[in-house]
Design a protein that fits this description.
The structure is a single chain. With 238 residues, the protein is of the alpha+beta class. 34% of the residues lie in helices and 32% in strands. The strands form 2 sheets. Strands 2, 3, 4, 5, 6, 7 and 8 form a 7-stranded antiparallel sheet that branches. It has a 3-stranded antiparallel sheet with strand order 1-10-9. The longest helix has 41 residues. It is globular, with a radius of gyration of 25 Å.
């Protein structure tokens, strides 16, 4: 009488343990497959052909100095519109891309590109690692807010949520073709800080001295005048 319930309980325990092991195995398998696919997308550089000014068959034509353009805008009080092509050609003329350190013989720093989308920008660093193309990028948004000492500039290192109904996590950038969460930016933040130091004056004029900043598809609109002081409201291109 006592042997039947005991055997049934043992069978149920073994069955439950087997289901748990199978479930755990499926989870581990799915994780391994997902990690493998992520590594594939990371090692593939993102497509840059849609970026204005990327046409490498043409040399970067001479154009106005960005610092002078921004200085004139601030001093004379008129807005300017910078196109994606103008920004990238200026970067190509002025930025000397050089990789230093222990990996200098294996890693080349080729170019820095800017892609402008509605509401945010993407700054892309293009490298070759052991002769293979590799890209990393960072999204950022710029906002002007009124503070106790006047307007202040806030730079947010993200491109918004992955989905409107999922506010977290935020899209931080791309490693290759893979869009990564904001927390992964810690891995590339030193490179971007070093890059920013090369353009201290342009960043100060273009973002801190401007009262209004608007990022649109393929163009950046900068206005040193607050709305009440702007007689035209029209951002002329240069």
């Amino acid at each position: 009488m006592l042997s039947r319930p005991f055997m049934a309980d043992s069978s149920e325990t073994r069955s439950g343990g087997g289901c748990l092991r199978r479930l755990l195995s499926l989870i581990l398998l799915a994780g391994a497959v997902g990690l493998g696919m992520a590594m594939v997308f990371i090692t593939r550089s993102q497509d840059l052909t849609d970026i204005g000014g990327y046409d490498q068959t043409q040399t970067a034509a001479a154009g106005p100095d960005m610092k002078v353009v921004l200085q004139n805008s601030v001093i004379r009080g008129y807005p300017v519109t910078l196109t994606e092509t103008q920004i990238n050609r200026w970067l190509g003329r002025t930025l000397v891309a050089k990789q230093s350190g222990l990996l200098a013989q294996l890693v080349s720093l080729d170019r820095v590109w800017v892609r402008l989308e509605d509401g945010y920008a993407e700054v892309i660093i293009e490298r070759h690692i052991m002769k293979q193309p590799f890209t990393v990028s960072m999204f950022f948004k710029v906002q002007k807010k009124q503070g106790p000492k006047g307007l202040r500039t806030e730079v947010h290192l993200h491109g918004g949520p992955y989905h409107p109904y999922l506010p977290q996590p935020l899209k931080g950038g791309r490693f290759g073709q893979l869009v990564v969460p904001q927390g992964f930016l810690l891995l590339v933040l030193p490179s971007y800080k070093q890059l920013a130091t090369l353009f201290d004056e342009e960043i100060h004029l273009g973002f801190e001295e401007m009262a209004r900043i608007k990022i649109e598809k393929h163009r950046l609109i900068l206005n040193p005048l607050e709305p009440s002081n702007d007689p035209t409201g029209l951002p002329p291109a240069f």
